[in-house]
């Protein structure tokens, strides 16, 4: 095999791998898919009126994601009072 043929084969292989992997990389994960019903967790930000003085920001289906957002925004992650069902977490989940 000549150098030109080898480079062409390597380039074709790289383009093929890119063509196969690109749709997989841009696919939306199932965890990020929209869900119906109220989310189990909300952020409760502090305000000048004290805790709970600002409206809760709900929309967190994963406890760890809620905790990370709470840390980023100086808020607390709390159970959503509108959520009907079993909360998908245990107290030790935040530490793993």
What attributes does this structure have?
96 residues, elongated, single chain, 36% helix, 3 strands, alpha+beta, 2 helices, three-stranded antiparallel sheet
Provide a descriptive summary of the structure in words.
By secondary structure, this protein is an alpha+beta fold. Helices cover 36% and strands 15% of the residues. The protein is built from two helices and three strands, in the order αββαβ. It has helices spanning 3-26, 63-73; strands at 41-45, 57-60, 75-79. It has a three-stranded antiparallel β-sheet with strand order 2-1-3, covered by helices on one side. The chain is elongated. It starts with a helix and ends in a 17-residue tail after the last strand.
Question: Tally the helices: what do you get?
Answer: 2
Structural class by sheet pairing and helices:
alpha+beta
Spatial separation of the terminal alpha carbons: 53 Å
How much of the sequence is in beta strands? 5-15%
Q: How is the quaternary structure best described?
A: single chain
- Overall 3D geometry? elongated
> Which strand order spans the largest sheet, edge to edge or round the barrel?
2-1-3
Q: Can you write the helix and strand succession as a string?
A: HEEHE
In round numbers, the mean pLDDT is 73
The radius of gyration computed from the alpha-carbon positions, rounded to a whole number of angstroms, is: 23 Å
Number of strands: 3
Low-confidence stretches: 24-33
Summarize the biggest pleated sheet: 3 strands, antiparallel
Helix content: 25-40%
